[in-house]
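Sanity check record (used in CI):
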Amino acid sequence: MKKLVLAAALTAAASTAFAGSYAEPVIEAPVVVEETAASSSAAGVWVPLVLLAIVAAVVAAD
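Expected output for Ferrochelatase:
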């Protein structure tokens, strides 16, 4: 009877040890958030300044 209990205990311990197979871990790639280049407010200032300079040149020529 002792051998039967010992055999059952060893069988239970061995079956749980090899229950699953080895699988490589799944590693997800990190998410990279790239910031877009912010448009500078100086770019929107050049067109009105050039127009103002042209108007000033026309007024000064008269």
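Residues 1-61 form one domain. If this sentence no longer matches the regenerated tokens, the check is flagged for review.
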